[in-house]
Amino acid sequence: MDNASKKTINIAFLVLCHDEEELLGRLSKFLLYGEDKVFVHVDRKVDINKFKNAVVGLKNVCFTENRFDVYWGGFNSVKATMELIKTALNDNVYFDRFVLLQGRDYPLHSPEYMHNFFLSRRNEEFCKGSNVTKSKNPQDYMKCCGWWNRDRTTNFFSKIANKFFAFLNTKVCIKYRRGYFKTRTLKWDVFKGWAQISLTRECALFVLNTYEKMPRYNKFMKHRFPPDEIYIHTIIYNSRFRERISSFYLIPKANASWFDSALNLTYFEYPSKVVIFKDLSEYDELLKTKALFIRKVSSKDSRLLLDEIDYRTSIRNANSTSFL
Q: What is the pTM of this model?
């Protein structure tokens, strides 16, 4: 049976986390459905045992063997993501859909709803982005035309260099690096989007193969910013998968403090820092965004909201709300 005629799919949820082990346990229980699995990369700087303890007895959870020290805006976030994709692709379950989440994300809809959603859009890639190579905005083009290093270094001279280049990138804004990736046969502009993406199996394989077989591309991306928001997007927008990028869009929540039309399936608000959703009264408005997930939530501060999501999704019929 070919993919187009399949009536069911299996979803691999790929989770990058460094805290909120209780939330990971709650998320994993929520996503316990069919042959779906939750693949988890735990930041190497923290104790993995507390995360494993949080999911004891849940057979749908798998931790990556290789772990990396992940820092915001650092290239190790790409390495961790590739480890998640590789682990899921090598699993004994054949996954049709790969959904990238972060440790503070949580579903708004039931697994049944998500399966119906992805079945209706089985060949779409949820990875919107914009060309920063050709952007006229220095806040955009300096992400690929500047030198960035967010992976932590203890070397004194490296710290000084980081501060110097940060000044060039954010204050001077002169293009001092080539803003595109080039080989003898390729020339790729850089595209930026948001890290919360969802790919088909075919696309995930293509991305992983690029990572493993194009070290020059990895070297080019290592000191661009931020790697987790440009690495995969650039690959996809410079490939045949560009034609499969979904036109699905989210709707801003009523009285939203911030909204970006490039959001994929995860709704969040980022006026100056990412808002933590915690008010029970927000639930119905969050549903109207059409998002499958929200971020950020907290196992403590968002408990009432999470309880409501769990309760309402448990009783709501998967087809009671249109997902088309």
A: 0.94
